[in-house]
Amino acid sequence: QVQLVESGGGLVQAGGSLRLSCAASGPTFSTYYMGWFRQAPGKEREFLAAISWSGGSTYYADSVKGRFTISKDNAKSTVFLQMNSLKPEDAAVYYCAAKFGPSRLSVTTQYVYWGQGTQVTVSS
Question: Which of 24, 29, 92, 104 could form a disulfide with 38 if both were Cys (CB 3.0 to 4.6 A apart)?
Fold first, then answer.
């Protein structure tokens, strides 16, 4: 049983930082790509960043490039999203997910496994 569990969300002041974690367990993820998404109330789920299981390649949405960094700790099967210079418009529920292969990394429906999400609130 594949399980993804996010943590690290909370309330932060605009301009501050948070680091989200996604712990993965279950069958091997050797061919997987891991992604981070967010969804604000009334809006579609938005792709943020993706990383290969090996950690050797990353891909970012233009909206977060330069502020957010995705990384992976292979020994602990954990994916991180470091978020800096947070803005009120970054407030959302943040999700981690996994898909097969490197194609269409920004497409929500390509991801097979999802975590439950962690809330990020940014105050102005």
Answer: 92
